[in-house]
Amino acid sequence: xxxxxxxxxxxxxxxxxxxxxxxxxxxxxxxxxxxxxxxxxxxxxxxxxxxxxxxxxxxxxxxxxxxxxxxxxxxxxxxxxxxxxxxxxxxxxxxxxxxxxxxxxxxxxxxxxxxxxxxxxxxxxxxxxxxxxxxxxxxxxxxxxxxxxxxxxxxxxxxxxxxxxxxxxxxxxxxxxxxxxxxxxxxxxxxxxxxxxxxxxxxxxxxxxxxxxxxxxxxxxxxxxxxxxxxxxxxxxxxxxxxxxxxxxxxxxxxxxxxxxxxxxxxxxxxxxxxxxxxxxxxxxxxxxxxxxxxxxxxxxxxxxxxxxxxxxxxxxxxxxxxxxxxxxxxxxxxxxxxxxxxxxxxxxxxxxxxxxxxxxxxxxxxxxxxxxxxxxxxxxxxxxxxxxxxxxxxxxxxxxxxxxxxxxxxxxxxxxxxxxxxxxxxxxxxxxxxxxxxxxxxxxxxxxxxxxxxxxxxxxxxxxxxxxxxxxxxxxxxxxxxxxxxxx
Length: 489
Ligand code: ADP
Ligand code: GLC
Description:
CATH class of the largest domain: Alpha Beta
CATH superfamily of the largest domain: Glycogen Phosphorylase B
Mean pLDDT: 96
CATH architecture of the largest domain: 3-Layer(aba) Sandwich
Structural class: alpha/beta
Radius of gyration: 23 Å
Bound molecules: adenosine-5'-diphosphate, alpha-D-glucopyranose
């Protein structure tokens, strides 16, 4: 099959969170599993891959109408294994310090930026002569692609055999804009209907993806049920999803085990595997305690956090109970995002310098060190579509303490018996549940045999993409077949 992936981020080129990991890993998996031709389209942000890739210009340019103006798109490309990666260039839209926002908030023209990108994906495919069987889009930033295919490009012979699959990585970010975004995007007022693009008087990009794609996927089986069933998860789109229930599938994310492997990880002090974790983790813990200038003490339970700072992640709940826990344990926290949460964490680190370390910002190297050094990994998420961090933590022998929701529920198991558990689950993201789970961890940590059994369970889990990438490909094959059958020749 010819597979075109359109997304707003992909590791190792650009990443703000799990979406980047997923898009990067899936592109590679699709290109390796079978005889598929895979191209990946990304915006050409400033500082792609930290300058580690040499991109070559694709000659020429093409024009994209946005908001009554004509914008110019050009492209550069790099061959990444078997995947051809194309970067859509337009300095006005993408040559900026951040991908989506500044520290003060989202870029005001995010609607135009991703209208431009989505349309440039379709025009770019034509420009390079790549007729996709499948276009796989992710989240609101590329959600207009399926809508274009079913409206403005419906009669375009170039895409006559193209089917679209839309993956919801996080429905909390919907790309909601005033109704004039409809006109900026070039749609017709007749599509401004509640069963199409209209959403409470405005335009909702995520809804466009859900309504117009041939197949919708969500990034874990539990999340795919939650978002259709409850407003707190579906965030207003639960009805639309329920309506398309038959076309909605939950496919669990995996992690790239080449990047995340404690045995070969060059960021960490000492590599280890499931047989040698005791020595390896002890050495990584000591090194990180020293680096972060917190008390060097192997008896203290060390909790790690690597996270976006966002209401979703429940770290405000953790902040509230840290003071009552610092005599029993330590915390090393890395996070970027919300200023209020960052301030609270900074204050805690200043008050308890030997027990709490906080670094604000995005730091790939420190993230690896935290997964390796920590004994537990805290994720009190209010909702979690899938979550990759808990899987990375488990691979590194750090036991997750996570809310029983979304992908956390699908990957973390706590039965009350260490021999059949790989972490700790809390029923709800609140202080009481988190406090009680942390108490359990503190006391179990002293019973080394039981603790190590849980570490082995965690490290032995299968978090690979093998099964899930195969499920995507099966869906691609069947939707492509249906699309082909529906054509009247
Ligand atoms: P989300 O996508 O909601 O942010 P996930 O758990 O799916 O959460 O994925 C988070 C990914 O981003 C993981 O690879 C994690 O290690 C990484 N990450 C998150 N915050 C940071 C940070 N501040 N510095 C480095 N890596 C981070
Ligand atoms: C989102 C979700 C996270 C998920 C990631 C990749 O950012 O918050 O739970 O793992 O996307 O799908």
